[in-house]
Specification:
This protein has 445 residues and is α+β, with helices and mostly antiparallel strands. The protein has three domains: 104 residues, Phosphorylase Kinase, domain 1 (2-Layer Sandwich), CATH 3.30.200; 206 residues, Transferase(Phosphotransferase) domain 1 (Transferase(Phosphotransferase), domain 1); 93 residues, TATA-Binding Protein. Helices cover 30% and strands 21% of the residues. The protein has 13 helices and 17 strands. Strands 1-6-7-5-4-3-2 form a seven-stranded mixed β-sheet, with helices on one face. It has a five-stranded antiparallel β-sheet with strand order 13-17-16-15-14. Helix 12 packs antiparallel against helix 13. It is globular, with a radius of gyration of 23 Å. The structure holds adenosine-5'-diphosphate (ADP) and magnesium ion. Adenosine-5'-diphosphate (ADP) binds next to strand 3, strand 5 and strand 7.
Length: 445
């Protein structure tokens, strides 16, 4: 493995909480908070050496004492992976990593400042932009994505919050925190199984858990972004998350009346639920809507990173990405969209949802077996044929419900299992010891 955090500088002093005015390692003076995501906080900062403004993305240092608490186990891998990815990317429309600083409690990425804020600040009062403007930014996005894909890097979380603007108003793709790298030698590792992304932007093949090509998943998300920019609303949406996934799975969306025929045609090919038929980046670039109004020369320049030269190559491909292939759950999707109000629908207190690539009956049979093994009474409610709910009840303890399990069918072999856990220690134990292993689908190879 290459030393993913190459030129890391260590400081002895703790720096938490970072108050504005704090100077990091004698060099970067911290300003206000620019934004926060699932994994990190991003601050404005001034480089005291050059006077230049930068963005500093600060993660809790996963190696700090006490950082081994829940979920921190794979953080070092995640931060190193993000660093490794950013280091190999030099493109006009990809946020650039300048330096990594580590203190005892934090790891800081020093990044290009996206002084123009989020791309979505440019939509008008009706929440959209003209087709021409949407094309302008979509070109920049596709240019960045195509560049990444050509280098075996996949973003896997393309969505509005991660598309920023520099001071000149050019698009910058940010946040490779969920990115993946293809290992150069092993083509099969291109098929990934990790559940990634944000519900409304997630490609259908991710839902079916059959493994997916990360490049096609990025293309799908680009299509959703393009639709949202030009329409002012999501192509796949529903008050019910299950219904939303059904629409995604079927690739069922309708374009608003003002979309041009060429844009509709492009979107059909990008938001194609069949990944093998879906356009790749080159397919998009060749499409008339994409090329409209630009000369070959202009497009060529754009596609080559705005004419910028590729600089140093930062060592061999990282092979860490495979460690990300832990058992995915529906929670994985939502834990990356803390701002989404869908998450309340999805994982409420004591509620779990898991995607399975199996018919309901198979899952419910395992649930029943788990209930009996735990010494509980299992009662089926015939209300919804095949899908449960199944109640697991504690007869001795007065008939209290330990778990209620329902299965919703999304598509042929894709279901969502919803588990409402009972209160109390017994119910919690039953979930972790017996029920969770029973509802989680068998591991994908
Ligand atoms: P996370 O990995 O936790 O999602 P992000 O890298 O997406 O973190 O950053 C979180 C937010 O911080 C972004 O949505 C954006 O608003 C802001 N941000 C991130 N990078 C920059 C940057 N280079 N310049 C300005 N703001 C940024
Ligand atoms: Mg983010």
């Amino acid at each position: 493995m290459p030393p993913a955090t190459g030129a890391v500088a260590y400081a002895a002093a703790a720096d938490s909480p970072p108050a504005a005015g704090t100077v990091l390692l004698g060099r970067y003076e911290l300003g206000g908070l620019l934004g926060r995501g699932a994994s990190a906080k991003v601050y404005l900062a001034r480089d005291l050496l050059t006077g230049r403004s930068v963005a500093i993305k600060s993660f809790p240092n996963p190696r700090a004492a006490g950082a081994n608490a829940a979920g921190a186990g794979d953080r070092p891998v995640a931060i190193e992976r993000e660093a490794g990815i950013l280091r190999r990317l030099r493109h006009r429309h990809v946020v650039r990593l300048h330096e990594i600083l580590a203190t005892r409690k934090k790891v800081h990425f020093v990044l290009d400042l996206a002084a123009g804020g989020e791309l979505f600040s440019l939509v008008d009062a009706s929440g959209r932009m003209t087709e021409d403007l949407a094309r302008h930014y979509f070109r920049q996005l596709v240019s960045a994505v195509r560049y990444c894909h050509a280098r075996g890097v996949y973003h896997r979380d393309i969505k509005p919050e991660n598309l920023l603007l520099d001071e000149a108003g050019a698009l910058m793709v940010a946040d490779f925190g969920l990115g993946a790298v293809a290992t150069a030698t092993d083509g099969s590792s291109l098929l990934r199984h990790t559940m990634c992304g944000t519900p409304a932007y997630v490609a259908p093949e991710i839902l079916s858990r059959k493994g997916y090509e990360p490049a096609k998943v990025d293309i799908w998300s680009c299509g959703v972004v393009l639709f949202v920019l030009a329409a002012g609303y999501l192509p796949f949406n529903d008050a019910s998350l299950v219904n939303m996934y059904r629409k995604i799975y079927a690739g069922r969306f309708r374009c608003p009346g003002w979309f041009s025929p060429a844009l509709r045609d492009l979107l059909r090919r990008v938001l194609d639920p069949d990944p093998s038929a879906r356009f790749d980046a080159d397919g998009i670039v060749a499409h008339p809507w994409f090329r409209h109004g630009a000369s070959d020369e202009e497009l060529g320049r754009l596609m080559h990173g705005g004419g910028e030269q590729e600089e140093a190559w930062f060592g061999p491909a990282e092979t860490k990405a495979d460690e990300d292939d832990r058992e995915p759950t529906a929670f994985d999707i939502l834990s990356f969209s803390p701002g989404s109000d869908l998450s309340a629908l999805f994982v409420g207190a004591g509620k779990e949802r898991v995607f399975v690539g199996e018919p309901a009956a198979a899952v419910l049979a395992r649930v029943e077996a788990a209930g009996r093994k735990g010494g509980y009474r299992v009662r089926k409610d015939g209300k919804r044929a095949g899908g449960g709910p199944v109640y697991v009840e504690d007869e001795e303890g007065g008939g209290g419900v330990v778990a209620k399990v329902s299965v919703f069918r999304l598509a042929d072999a894709v279901s969502v299992v919803e588990v409402v856990k009972g209160d109390g220690a017994d119910a919690a134990l039953f979930w972790t010891e017996l029920l969770e292993p029973a509802v989680k689908p068998p591991a994908v190879s």
